[in-house]
Amino acid sequence: MARRRIIAGNWKMNMTPSQAVELVATLKDLVVNPDVDVVYCVPAIDIVPVAEAIKGSNVALGAENFYIEDKGAFTGEISAPMLKDAGVKYIIIGHSERRDIFGENDILINQKVKKAFAAGLSPILCCGESLALRKAGTYTEWIKRQITWDLDGVTADQVKELVIAYEPIWAIGTGETATADQAEEVCKMIRETIADLYDEATAEAVRIQYGGSMNAGNAAELLAKPNIDGGLIGGAALKPDFGKIVNA
């Protein structure tokens, strides 16, 4: 079964609403590719204007974060049903910046994965290792543990609709990129972990992205690997080069 490629931009905390609309207009003709799912994961304040700006295009809308309750006294938070109602389809969960800066642990991330599915959103579940874990050689055990914990109680049918993003933390925003072989090694291991936790059919269906300074120059080599089904793109998602990655 051929998996459909998915290229998602993670805008992080960039783009005012007016800048966001301008960027969508700039990218509109550059990101057209009928064989690729294209997603913009945008800051909460940009969701409504970007939803309007991408109407009639091939781009799906994603969000960067949400809270596990549907509603209530949680000042400053946004719920999955709110995102769904605003036109969001994908949600980034467990990004290393959420884990490291905001202290999100695997128990919360597991709750978020389940809540996203309950609300009809497709999670982009992030995993990856620090430079210390990479150098210590224990990164495969670390990532297997992340996947196992984050998917606890998640069904095989749900996992088939999941996107997993492998992001070596040492390669995010640093200009350092895992070599195509390093990225493929881990993405293959992630797929084998899904096969162990579920079955071969589920492992073959799940889409695995590489994220970690993927850009117009290295995208084609990374995307040629059999277990890399797309990219979660940071800095390059804010530039016209994003179109080159979509069409790599």
User: What order do the helices and strands follow?
Assistant: EHEHEHEHHEHHHEHHEHEH
Radius of gyration: 17 Å
Q: Number of helix segments?
A: 12
The rough form would be described as globular
Q: What would the average pLDDT be, to the nearest integer?
A: 96
Please provide the count of β strands. Answer: 8
Please list the strands of the largest sheet in the order they lie side by side: 1-2-3-4-5-6-7-8
Distance between the first and last residues' Cα: 21 Å
Secondary structure: helix percent: 40-55%
Percent strand? 15-25%
Low-pLDDT residue spans = none
Structural class by helix and strand composition: alpha/beta
Biggest sheet character:
8 strands, parallel, barrel
Task: Please explain how this structure is put together.
The chain has 248 residues and is of the alpha/beta class. Helices cover 42% and strands 16% of the residues. It has twelve helices and eight strands. It has helices spanning 17-27, 47-53, 80-85, 96-102, 106-119, 131-136, 139-150, 156-160, 180-197, 200-205, 219-223, 241-246, and strands at residues 5-10, 36-42, 59-63, 90-93, 122-127, 163-166, 207-210, 230-233. It is globular and about 45 Å long. The model has no long low-confidence stretch (mean pLDDT 96).
Q: What distinguishing features does this structure have?
A:
single chain, 248 residues, alpha/beta, 12 helices
